[in-house]
Design goal:
The complex is a heterodimer of chains A (234) and B (613).
Chain A: H1 12-21, H2 32-60, H3 69-72, E1 75-77, E2 80-82, H4 85-109, H5 113-143, H6 156-189, H7 191-194, H8 208-233
Antiparallel strand pairs in A: 1-2
Chain B: H1 3-7, H2 17-20, H3 28-31, H4 50-55, H5 60-90, H6 100-136, H7 144-163, H8 193-222, H9 235-266, E1 277-278, E2 281-282, H10 290-323, H11 331-344, H12 360-388, H13 397-420, H14 422-428, H15 432-462, H16 468-494, H17 510-544
């Protein structure tokens, strides 16, 4: 798809109605895979929304008080409880990995194989660090007696919702990390430069795949911001 | 990438005849202009072995047939279950193995199978896969590999569901709505493995469907052929597209409720479980909200009704137009009605919950939105009828099923208006009136469309016609039989016979209900057996049916215009088709034939007064 053919498109609302009224494609110049990822993310947004709305409903209607989150989630540094410390680091790491991902996409389109590969690897390591810290947080809470079915600090739904939602998000991050490692290998091997055919799909590789993976990764980060706000700041 | 595409320097313009009016009358070459291809030729995987061609196949047409056959298999299981239920209701204790527990399991499995594994999979997986690439002029779905995985996920989901018949305790008997707390507590049949397998199967279905749904949406949005604007697509595609969009947004709620209920069952969390005393013993559950499940379930469940209905609306519009030899009345209105119904369907879910104990004001709101849906729906019915008005109707099996659809749909729709009002719903809820309503509107009506669609597209898929004679027998048995089953149920509902009851015991209305129940049972058995006429027709027509040839119905839409019939892998041979018009140019004044196919360029039908599309 050549870009200069898309330069003549009208912009704004007129452009939108123009694109929707035209033949062949509704989103001009957007590759199939990219549109697929956007629509998948829309669907995934509904999954997380359902989880978070259920959590709000559960939290506001429990008969036992909700535990004080700034105490439950605090880390003891030199005997002093510091609320939000671990979670601040986790959030920082994850958001940073979004930055490296964005750079990887940029270098990918510039066909800078080395930079792209290393940045994807950096993103994967950021994601892995996040998951590692989540494991630490989970084990700390489990050690203190919080379980999906019980919670010594208050309402038992706290444990249920916390493990379920962070677990579901953590699964997303882990899947992302696996794909980041696979894609780092593909980039270093030059699959995207040579349009090597995929092992399963037999379709030609293209650097747009990095951007698609990037969309997923940014989405996972964005979801984390909401989980962070609803679990740790509320 | 085509050469034409690189060289072009014309601005990207929607090529519709509206922009063409200025230049009409000049050379025919200008009239026939369709802007050049924007997309490179699709890269396809060609299977060579039997396994890659017919089993793990990436061709959407084969996947569509696989979906269709699997869904029909589950549908037959659902049909047999309904027979067993009817036997118990009509002739209590006639069949000794139908105990109360088994009856509840049959009710549950019948409902879930028919709604999710039969109708949804059949319309979107079956018709969607087969028709979308053909009707929009694509070589295949945009992600053939993902499409294949989608089918096999569905297949595994069906296997897991069927496995629940054979586990200790049997399948779940919680009712298809699976309401907690009873769905996962002892005392409900299948509250151990049955419910777990059901939830697992639903989750697998959602995952598989998401893969397929992404394919359907993106093929329609991004892989149309030259000249195929959104407003030139057949209504079938609009129906399937909107239904898929609904599914992508509604299934997440089902997935979330399945995950949460699985955790409630397996880890004893209390998302949906309030404090419960069972047989004098306080359970570990407490503090959860059963109504939350109902909200999540019906946020999925109501759009699900339209996931089944919208493709039926779309398909029936096309069938009516082709067999009435007339353009569909108010095409754009029909499109916006489909989209409008789809949008509204997300704001009506709590009308299933008027008696759940939610805030009455909530019911007021949802009654209002529910009744608003009647507006675009009635609009569609009027348009179908106006399309038929003074049309050149062919009274063949397809048309009979379309007319049957309109009648049953109007019938079910009107009872829907009853049930949408809180004050009327409260006495009628959980009676046979509700059963009659939803079987009419989302059982019989979409089935009529499915059967009509099979008679219509069988020649395309197999190259042979189905027998008209058997088809008419099939229609009349099905239509009159379905009415004999569901029409009396309205009355049963009015006299207060509750749904989901294994037996009526010594209730005061037993005397008047008994005869009617027997009648319904006999009718249900006959209608069920009549479906074997259909199956027999399909099986025999595969080998002895009249060869169909190209475009036997003289239809306009693209699926009939492939170089080979039945269409081969890649659909279009050397060159993709180029579209010049909508698919409804029937009986156009001034045209030589009574139909003008979508690929006919304007220069060939200069004298015809075609619609501007």
């Amino acid at each position: 798809m050549s870009d200069n053919s898309l330069n003549n498109l009208p912009g704004g609302f007129k452009g939108m109605s123009h694109d929707m009224g035209s033949d062949q494609t509704a989103f001009k110049g957007a590759q199939w895979g990219k549109v697929m990822m956007w629509i998948f993310l829309l669907s995934d947004t509904f999954i997380f929304s359902c989880f978070l709305i259920s959590y709000m409903k559960g939290r506001t209607s429990t008969v036992v008080d909700w535990p004080n989150t700034s105490e439950v989630f605090s880390l003891h540094v030199g005997g002093v409880p510091v609320p939000l410390l671990l979670i601040a680091i986790m959030t920082f790491v994850l958001i940073t990995s979004s930055g490296t991902m964005a750079l990887a996409v940029k270098y990918g389109y510039e066909r800078n194989r080395k930079m792209c590969g290393w940045l994807i690897l950096a993103t994967a390591i950021g994601g892995l660090t996040f998951v590692g810290m989540q494991v630490f947080e989970w084990s700390k809470l489990i050690h203190e007696g919080v379980r999906p079915w019980e919670n010594p600090f208050g309402a038992k739904q706290f444990g249920s919702f916390f493990f379920m939602i962070t677990g579901f998000h953590g699964t997303h991050v882990s899947i992302g990390v696996i794909f980041l490692f696979i894609y780092a290998r593909k980039v270093f091997r030059g699959d995207f430069d040579n349009a090597k055919r995929g092992f399963f799909t037999t379709m030609k590789s293209d650097y747009v795949a990095i951007e698609i993976l990037g969309l997923y990764w940014h989405f996972v980060d964005l979801v984390w911001v909401f989980i962070f706000a609803f679990f740790y700041l509320w | 990438m085509s050469d034409e595409y690189n060289q072009k320097n014309t601005p990207l313009e929607a090529q519709s005849s509206e922009t063409m009016t200025d230049i009409s009358g000049t050379t025919s070459k200008d009239i026939d202009y369709v802007r050049p291809a924007e997309l490179p030729e699709q890269d396809l995987y060609h299977g060579h072995s039997f396994i890659t061609k017919w089993v793990f196949c990436q061709d959407a047409k084969v996947i569509g047939v696989q979906y269709f056959l699997t869904a029909v298999f589950t549908g037959i299981v659902g049909l047999v279950l309904s027979w067993l239920m009817r036997l118990q209701l009509g002739y209590p204790d006639l069949v000794p193995f139908i105990t109360a527990e088994h009856y509840y399991q049959f009710v549950t499995m019948h409902g879930m199978i028919m709604v999710v594994y039969f109708l949804t999979a059949l319309f979107l997986g079956g018709f969607g896969n087969y028709l979308i690439p053909l009707m929009v002029g694509a070589r295949d779905m945009v992600f053939p590999y993902v499409n294949m995985v989608s089918f096999w996920m569905f297949f595994i989901a069906v296997c897991v569901l069927m496995a629940s018949f054979f586990v200790p305790g049997g399948p779940t008997g919680a009712g298809w709505t699976l309401y907690p707390p009873q769905a996962i507590l002892p005392g409900t049949p299948g509250s151990n493995m049955g419910i777990i397998l059901m939830l697992a199967s639903l989750s697998l279905f959602v995952i598989g469907f998401t893969m397929g749904g992404l394919n359907y949406i993106i093929t329609i949005l991004q892989a149309r052929t030259r000249g195929m604007t959104l407003m030139r697509m057949p209504l079938t595609i609009w129906g399937i597209f909107t239904a898929t969009a609904l599914a992508m947004l509604a299934f997440p709620a089902l997935l979330v409720s399945c995950i949460m209920m699985t955790l409630d069952k397996m880890l004893e969390t209390s998302f949906f479980m309030p404090a419960i005393i069972q047989a004098g013993e306080v359970l570990d559950y407490g503090g959860g909200s059963p109504v939350l499940f109902q909200h999540l379930f019906w946020f999925f469940g109501h759009p699900e009704v339209y996931i089944v209905a919208l493709p039926a609306f779309g398909i029936v519009s096309d069938l009516i137009s082709v067999h009435a030899r007339k353009n569909i009345f108010g095409y754009r209105m029909m499109v916006w009605a489909i989209v409008g119904i789809g949008g509204l369907s997300f704001f009506v879910w709590a009308h299933h919950m008027y008696v759940s104990g939610m805030n009455p004001w909530f019911g007021f709101f949802f009654a209002t939105t529910t009744l608003i849906i009647a507006v675009p729906t009635a609009l569609k019915v009027y348009n179908w009828i106006i399309t038929l008005f003074r049309a050149n109707i062919r009274m063949n099996t397809v048309m009979l099923f379309c007319l049957g659809f309109i009648v049953t749909f109007v019938n079910g729709g009107i009872t829907g208006i009853f049930l949408g009002n809180v004050a009327v719903d409260i006495p009628l809820s959980d009676t046979y009136f509700v059963i009659a309503h939803f079987h009419m509107v989302m059982g019989v009506a979409p089935l009529m469309v499915i059967m009509g669609a099979v008679y219509h597209w069988f020649p395309l898929v197999t190259g042979r016609m189905l027998s008209e004679k058997l088809g008419k027998w099939h229609f009349w048995f099905t239509f009159l039989g379905a009415y004999s089953i569901y029409f009396p149920m309205h009355y049963l509902g009015f006299i207060g016979v509750p749904r989901r009851y294994f037996e009526m015991y010594d209730s005061p209305y037993v005397a008047s209900a008994t005869g009617m129940n027997e009648f319904i049972t006999v009718a249900a058995l006959i209608v069920g057996f009549a479906q074997f006429i259909f199956i027999y027709n399909i099986v025999t027509s595969l080998s002895i049916g009249k060869p169909a040839g190209k475009n036997p119905w003289k239809a306009n839409s693209l699926e009939w215009l492939t170089p080979e019939v039945p269409p081969a892998h890649g659909n279009w041979g050397e060159k993709l088709p180029v579209i010049h018009r909508w698919p409804y140019d029937f009986n156009v004044p001034g045209a030589k034939e009574d139909y003008i196919t979508q690929t006919t360029p304007p220069s060939e039908v200069m004298s015809a007064e075609v619609e501007k599309t």
